[in-house]
Model the fold of this input.
Amino acid sequence: MRVPLWVLGLSAALVLGSCGKAAFDGTVYRGDDIEFRVGPVSPTWRAIEVEGALLAFRDDARAATVAVNGRCGLDGDDVPLQALTQHLFLHFTDREIISQQALELDGREALRTELVAELDGVPRRFVVYVLKKDGCVYDFMWIGGSPDGRGGVADFERFVRGFSTEV
Done:
């Protein structure tokens, strides 16, 4: 399977990883040092592997990609959610934030950001959630195939809203 260059570039921008054996049963992700539950995986999503992502899915019909990342004990304790979000887009140009709001996710404050940004001159639309909980930072990202496309965002929102670390 061929993964688009911009997805690989995105994974390089996300500083994450998991060692050892990891498993996802469709609801719960279990890795060496991280476990969490997510909401329903859309039937239009297929699992893909993206280096650096704990979970990744492709929605071919909507030309969208979903990536979930988490890391524990590396950063985040003293870093604001807005700065963690900006860090995800360091390698992108022409960033334009459409909306940004704080909300509660799994009993903690999270930051939801919607933006348009370019990677290698190709514009994409992003919906990103960043959450800090129990010494871990979690990033959820929906990447749309075009800057004006929003197909599949509702599925992504349900997926994120089902997140919990209580497994």
